[in-house]
Amino acid sequence: MKRLVSEAKYHLIPLNEIGGYQVRPGIYEINGATAIPGGVNFTIHSNQATGCELLLFHREENEPYTVIPFPENYRIGNVYSMIVFGLQIQEFEYAYRIDGPYCPKQGLLFDKNRILLDPYAKAVTGQSVWGEKRKSAGNQYHARVVRDDFDWEDAKPLLTPLEDTVIYEMHVRGFTKDASSGVKCPGTFAGIYEKIPYLKELGVTAIEFMPIFEFDELRDAREYQGNRLLNYWGYNTVSFFAPNTSYAAGIEYNQEGNELKHLIKTLHENGMEVYLDVVFNHTAEGNENGPVISFKGLDNQIYYMLTPEGYYYNFSGCGNTLNCNHPIVQQMILECLRYWVISYRIDGFRFDLASILGRNEDGSPMSKPPLLQSLAFDPILGNVKLIAEAWDAGGLYQVGNFPSWNRWVEWNGKYRDDMRAFLKGDLGKAECAVTRMFGSKDLYHGKLGNTTSVNFITCHDGFTLYDLYAYNQKHNEANGWSNSDGANDNASWNCGIEGETEDEGVNCLRLRMMKNAAAVLLLSRGVPMFLAGDEFGNTQFGNNNPYCQDNIISWLDWNLLKKNKQLFDFFKAMIAFRKKHDPVRKYTPVCEMGFPAMSAHDVSPWEDHFKEDSHYIGLMYAGRTNGKDDCIYVAVNTYWEPLHVKLPSLPLNMRWYQVADTYEADSIMENGILVSEDIYVRERSVMVFEVRNVYE
């Protein structure tokens, strides 16, 4: 890129004049619009187009002030490229018109009168105010040229190993939008910046943002019972290369993304990586009834999976499906991810409905999907975490079988399901729970050690941790679909009363259940992830699909941090405990006590043949930390009565110390309590023990 721009500076001079503008053939290798010395390079490609026009607009105007057609000799292959000299990037917005054949049954939707957004646009105009309707006519979008001059100084990637990673999933707007957040710029990247001390105190090592690519929150907007329902989550991408400008606290004309970059840089300085939830399975253009924004008008039959009749396959559940394994689409996705890594220093990507990325053009699953393979081996993405949501809305479920090349890791949906069932006391789940907590070897044997599994009990999709123990059924009536949307099987338990209650016993039990979940999650092999707000008992009032709720249902209520301070303290302590003890996270040198690296126990030590009615598991991790023996025992009782448990016997100079007990209000024993090998684990509680040398 720098070499090409340098060549442009010294060798590229105008060759033609069109409409009063000096122009010449452009730099064909650089897609999108790029400022170069003396002008702007515009490059766009379309396989079946017969003509292309560049449209320049004054800011926020619908009619172009000039139209510059690409001369036919400016086209090489299927690529149109032109340098327009004398343009000042702050003075214009741009779009395209593409001519070509129109035959919907063949998937051809060219229209020379339709205004199209550049698919490689680095900034999209007109959506900088959240929830405010764009002023542009019809569905037209314009783009801006971005000046990429952010100073990263001497910043280097953190390269946090997966085994040391704790992921915190967050919606940018919902994290600080509520007044209780106390920030100056609620609902923005700047608002998150103000919360960095909180995140650092909590101890998470990676922030995973729900979609931040430019999306249209007004798509399918509607009124229901006096509430305005929006596309709040943002899983409807308009532009893959552009940050959502409504998440910025200020207007960033031609420097879009700088506020986000400042946030990322500061998170890195505070020891936290940044992952993006990316949505390459579908776009905001929807099906044949949806708008034409960009891809449909450029190369509809290339960018989307189409039926023989020209309709859209819908493996995403959102109207269309990107044709990810077409070489053109592969190129776009790869360039996109590279751009975010180079320009924004992103550390990882979570791929929404990633199984779609492995489907062929006819929708069939591929054994070695070229897109997934190219991402796995791309040198620029070489140190980036690649996380797959290993299923899609078309019924393809690949948890444990996602093509990985030892690079891809997976959201482990089976961890969520099995651990939820075991924690609430279901029969026949003890052995499954042991398998999940020990890294799901049944799914990931021989893969990335203990880090292929991203373990989670909650995420944005489903109940919050509090709601998991406050509701037996979903309560999605506010979504306007008669409570028909969202999952019906949540493996939840309301602890005896549905919803909010003043019953102190029920509330104490719910708090204990949340601590139990935090303990097992953070003391499992694999990569733990939890939803923002779970650490202080945030509620969505039983809504397990609040994709459309831009209100207190989705916004974090920071008042609960004070109310549930002991839950926050427990999360913080368990994260710190996980970091302190290497054998919990990974294999280490064998401990001198002779214990195996991982072992499971019933109420009697070394008995690991769990019965159908078993409600207790004891898990022991053993190895070495900082050159010393390190042994941890986690006692999990999901039974409704206390259980007498015997801990494994230790050498004479070693003793068991209790360091946590979720049954107690003060669940963390900072200095530890010396205990005998005979203990009682009270009903529905988790206890944690560590071995100490009495002579040290």
Automatic annotation (TrEMBL):
Name of one Pfam family that matches: CBM_48
Domain Glycosyl hydrolase family 13 catalytic: 169-578
SUPFAM superfamilies (UniProt xref): (Trans)glycosidases (SSF51445), E set domains (SSF81296), Glycosyl hydrolase domain (SSF51011)
Annotated CDD domains: AmyAc_Glg_debranch, E_set_GDE_N
Key words of the record: Glycosidase, Hydrolase
GO biological process: glycogen catabolic process
Recorded family membership: Belongs to the glycosyl hydrolase 13 family.
Protein name stated in the entry: Glycogen debranching protein GlgX
Encoding gene, per UniProt annotation: glgX
